[in-house]
């Protein structure tokens, strides 16, 4: 297969020549005879990936989504501001990294050149103490990426490097998947960083930013997930840490076109229709119950968030076996997070980046200036002379006063960008959510995989355990395709070819050193 070839409009490798190919089981190009019917519960990234792979191969697909919009946690919805402007609100900024081969493959169905995405020139990180990191000049290929970051970062002085524990740090340079979970899942991300003796400034400025990408406190996050993150985005891939963002709101750029693509392939899109339960049948099929009644399907993909999956399983007493059901019901979500979007009557300074990660600014984790890259916000800013700024706070104390937290975020914005202190807030929206999967210390062995005890029922989503080096949105897309591939294999149909970053460290000398050190 050519490095630039695709399978059914699928994944495409980027610049990394060591990216790994995942070839599906052999079979025919499409289903023959009477096509099987599959129900997909959940219209987020995972459900849309599964629906795409199945429908392209002739399967009759019905997609159930409880909300009125597609996109799951990347959905958007219309809103009207106090000044009468029609805007699209959502759950906040998401970075589309170049390592997201399978997610980007999904999006190529509607835009082969990915023109709906725009590149941000940098990924700056700022600490309240005055330190700031940048990735714009960091080399992309390991090990030069790690060496370049250490050389350019103000958080790594020679004394800091000399004080580090190299033996404890070696596993970061020789990640092996899935062995990383066996070695580090019983340790917290914070404990691992303390063992390595990274400089405290680096804890806050870089590593905490990585761990909080999972919306979790680093004291509760599995060290295995943090190590895997470093491998995927930094030490195991030559795609680099810069990323792309949609040039318009999610519905316009992504989900409305993909919905039309799926409808053109015969997919029945049932938005506003949550799945209530799944009843396995003796002949290997399953019955889906929703608000519109019960329907029989030859296969089912449950691409739900944590609470949605737990709810369906609790209402489906014959689904799976008892050990599997217990594992699903033990899944938990991260603490609440807050997305505040404010429309200001004047612009932020012209040199402010489109995205800034922050540390040491109270609850504020990052700031986005949306008119720097999103067309809808840019048009509003051009028309009014203002700015559209989005603020994120992750892992908020569940007992916190929400109104006070919203005010604190805006107070911290004025510390980060002092010119906003003079701005009047034209309007504001605040989204509180608590539906991201928690990857706790010691939790991986309990995490369900794509396959379930019922051969007709598959799981997909970023909550699903995987033996592949994928995370966040890419885990959702990859497990969605894998769920489809598993069903297609039952019917003798070849599924989607996938890509991942390498599944182990890239540098032979470092791998050998790690083995000699016995860590």
The amount of helix comes to 25-40%
N-to-C CA distance: 37 Å
The number of distinct structural domains comes to: 3
Radius of gyration: 23 Å
- Count of beta strands: 22
Strand content: 15-25%
Structural class: alpha+beta
CATH topology of the largest domain: FAD/NAD(P)-binding domain
Strand order of the biggest β-sheet: 9-8-17-18-19-16-20
Average of pLDDT: 90
- Shape-level CATH architecture of the largest domain: 3-Layer(bba) Sandwich
Q: Name the poorly predicted regions.
A: 1-8
Major β-sheet profile: 7 strands, mixed
CATH superfamily of the largest domain: FAD/NAD(P)-binding domain
* Count of helical stretches: 16
Specify the overall morphology.
globular
For the record, what CATH class of the largest domain applies? Alpha Beta
Topology:
Elements: E1 20-22, E2 37-41, H1 45-56, E3 60-65, E4 76-80, E5 86-90, E6 96-97, H2 101-107, E7 117-119, E8 125-127, E9 132-133, H3 144-152, H4 158-163, H5 166-173, H6 179-184, H7 189-196, H8 200-211, H9 223-235, E10 243-246, H10 250-264, E11 268-271, E12 275-280, E13 286-290, E14 293-297, E15 299-302, H11 306-314, H12 322-329, E16 337-344, E17 355-359, E18 366-369, H13 375-384, E19 387-393, H14 402-416, E20 425-433, E21 457-459, H15 472-490, E22 498-500, H16 508-517
């Amino acid at each position: 297969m050519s490095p630039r070839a695709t399978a059914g409009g699928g994944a495409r490798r980027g610049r990394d020549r060591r990216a790994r190919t995942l070839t599906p089981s052999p079979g025919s190009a499409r289903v023959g005879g009477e096509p099987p019917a599959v129900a997909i519960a959940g219209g987020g990234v995972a459900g849309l990936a599964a629906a795409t792979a199945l429908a392209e191969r002739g399967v009759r697909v019905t997609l159930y989504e409880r909300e009125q919009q597609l996109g799951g946690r990347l959905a958007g919805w219309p809103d009207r501001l106090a000044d009468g402007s029609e805007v699209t609100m959502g759950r906040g900024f998401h970075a589309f990294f170049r390592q997201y081969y399978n997610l980007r493959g999904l999006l190529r169905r509607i835009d082969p050149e990915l023109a709906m995405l725009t590149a941000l020139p940098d990924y700056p990180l700022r600490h309240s103490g005055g330190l700031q990191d940048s990735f714009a000049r960091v080399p992309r290929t390991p090990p030069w990426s790690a060496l370049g970051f250490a050389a350019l970062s103000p958080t790594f002085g020679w004394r800091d490097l000399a004080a580090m524990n190299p033996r404890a740090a070696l596993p970061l340079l020789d990640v092996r998947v899935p062995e990383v979970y066996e070695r580090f899942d019983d340790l917290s991300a914070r404990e691992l960083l303390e063992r390595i003796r990274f400089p405290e400034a680096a804890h806050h400025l870089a590593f905490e930013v990585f761990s909080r990408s999972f919306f979790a406190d680093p004291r509760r996050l599995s060290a295995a997930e943090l190590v895997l993150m470093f491998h995927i985005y930094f030490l195991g891939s030559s795609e680099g840490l810069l990323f792309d963002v949609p040039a318009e709101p999610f519905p316009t750029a992504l989900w409305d076109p993909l919905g039309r693509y799926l409808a053109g392939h015969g997919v029945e899109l049932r938005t506003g229709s949550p799945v209530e339960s799944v009843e396995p049948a003796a002949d290997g099929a399953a019955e889906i119950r929703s608000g519109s009644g019960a329907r029989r399907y030859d296969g089912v993909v449950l691409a739900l968030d944590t609470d949605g999956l737990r709810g369906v399983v609790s209402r489906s007493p014959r689904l799976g076996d008892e050990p599997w059901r217990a594992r699903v019901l033990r899944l938990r979500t991260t603490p609440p997070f807050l997305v505040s979007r404010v429309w200001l009557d004047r612009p932020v300074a012209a040199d402010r980046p489109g995205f800034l990660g922050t540390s040491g600014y109270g609850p504020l984790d990052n700031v986005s200036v949306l008119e720097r890259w999103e067309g809808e916000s840019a048009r509003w800013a051009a028309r009014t002379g203002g700015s559209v700024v989005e603020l994120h706070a992750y892992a908020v104390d569940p007992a916190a006063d929400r109104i006070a937290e919203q005010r604190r975020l805006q107070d911290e914005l004025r510390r980060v960008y002092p010119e906003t202190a003079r701005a009047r807030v034209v309007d504001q929206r605040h989204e509180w959510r608590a539906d991201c999967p928690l990857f706790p210390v010691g939790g991986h062995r309990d995490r369900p995989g794509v396959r379930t005890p019922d051969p007709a029922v598959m799981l997909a989503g970023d909550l699903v355990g995987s033996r592949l080096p994928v995370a966040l949105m890419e885990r959702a897309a990859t497990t969605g395709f894998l769920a489809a591939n598993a069903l297609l294999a039952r019917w003798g149909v070849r599924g989607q070819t996938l890509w991942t970053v390498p599944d182990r460290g890239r540098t032979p000398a470092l791998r050998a050193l790690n083995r000699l050190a016995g860590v």
